[in-house]
Structure to design on (119 residues):
């Protein structure tokens, strides 16, 4: 069985699958937390910089997963941006009550995306 994906970075299939799953999870968690927990909490949970970051993180994670699924030649560039945005989102969420699930999802996604970059 070939364990190397036929992709621009020659990533092991298991690493790419894990990254796709982490990106999709992060996308769902960030969107759900923003639309439910943050809107219900109000205050700093809906401060424009934080709320925008959560929505952009959700969208970027979804687009990054789609790029890997499509074997898009520039998926590593998206992974690089996704890793950075997830780091920022985790840091922003860490400062707010009840955001542990978002912090966890963002941290896992950031690490998975960073692992997709060429060494």
């Amino acid at each position: 069985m070939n364990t190397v994906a036929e992709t621009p970075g020659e990533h092991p299939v298991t690493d790419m699958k894990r990254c796709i799953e982490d990106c999709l999870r992060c996308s769902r968690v960030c969107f759900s937390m923003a639309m439910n927990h943050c809107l219900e909490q109000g205050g700093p949970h809906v401060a424009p910089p934080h709320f925008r970051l959560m929505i952009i993180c959700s969208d970027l994670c979804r687009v990054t997963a789609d790029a890997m699924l499509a074997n898009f030649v520039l998926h590593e560039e998206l992974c690089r941006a996704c890793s950075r945005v997830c780091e920022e989102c985790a840091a922003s969420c860490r400062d707010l009550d009840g955001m542990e699930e978002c912090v966890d999802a963002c941290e896992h996604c950031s690490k998975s995306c960073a692992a997709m970059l060429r060494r």
Residues 1-8 have pLDDT under 50 and may be disordered. Residues 13-115 form a domain with the Substrate Binding Domain Of Dnak; Chain:A; Domain 2 fold (CATH 1.20.1270.360).
